[in-house]
Amino acid sequence: MSALAGILAERGHSVSGSDPKDGPVVERLRRLGVQVFQEQTAATISSIRDGTTSSPLVVISSAVPETNPELMEARRLGLPVCHRSDVLAALINAQASIAVAGSHGKTTTSTLIASLLATAEQDPTAVIGGVVPAFGSNGRNGNGRLLVAEADESDGSLVKFRPQLGILTNIELDHTDHYPDLAALVATLQRFAAGSSRLLANRDCPILRQHFDASHWWSTETAEGVAFAAIPLEERGDGTRLAFYENGERVGELDLPLPGRHNLSNAAAALAACRLEGVPFEALARAVADLRTPGRRFDFRGCWQGRMVVDDYAHHPSEVGATLKMARLMLDTGRTSLPAVPRRIVAVFQPHRYSRTAQFLEGFARELALADAVLLAPLYPAGEAPIPGISSDALGRSVQAQAPGITVTVTSGLDDLARQLDEQSGEGDLVLAMGAGDVNSLWDRLARLSVGSTELVA
To answer: Catalytic residues, which ones?
Structure first.
């Protein structure tokens, strides 16, 4: 929503909105001329309407309930109301665009595409779900030919998009609050693919191979039978040396400053997309060195009491596993982008949604067992009603059953989590906080524990 608000404001529209929390994103919108209300009340709608004869368009996301007082007032007044995906579709469909969809890696892949295009002087517009380090924002209004957008599948609204190039990173069942089974998710993404002029897809994903007919495939496993391949030559804790292939021919070697196979696949997709849009390989080879992942993707926050604290958005078993394996690579290879090679991996995890936790309880436990110690925050419901027997306690028991030798601590809240972390971790540990809820506030809570101390270094 904030990315859309910023782009529309930069394009000359009068934009207003509300957010009860202040922060860098809100401050940036204010600087762009967006009127931001901190209280969400019916009076907000009256304030926006004052002094204008035109009828404002009210834009909502799937996270806005029908009981929201602003939405209720807008409906009472008969104002036009549309979903955020309608606004994004209008932007995507109005110019040459690249839309990135899939179960995992959307934010990172779209960030890498936009970053490569910007460094290669293509001046793209970008609408992305995370903060792009190269822009310092999740949205960018460029003057170039291309728009790069993250196409979220969580509510099915991405079927409205008609990109010039659609990208599918992978498919795995998720968002079980919306999709009853994998077939329903596949059907939705097939509609997205059908609306794309061209489709670039990950050949390494068996579900994509089975259900999709892409015009271009990429792989990190083989250069045969695919349009693009990024084959790892050396995998380290601070990056990957790779050979890049186009239609089976090796075109060069690159040093990707992002570790992990999942990031290699994301980068392969980004490089392939840019090549399909005509960006010279030489320009991309120069731009790769500056690539960084978006905010909350293995995001180093700082050092606390000798521990290195990293924030990550992982909230599906596959994402948790990929993040932990990347961290383990740092220990195993002795190479890291962190201030030091970690001594141990302390996984802090906040389950997100009852429905997801119920569906993947054993999967979460299996992946969390890759850590040396596990601390669990209370489950973040995201508006869902409780499911009997599903809780962080249940997940903790499952982790302990998977790995009896590691310490598993279930905490009563985020403040208790910070206190327990003080006791359960030590100097040199990597504290890896994962989840899509408010576990990202852990750094601030640790900071409060360190008031008067010099041991907090951002």
So the answer is: 106-107, 150
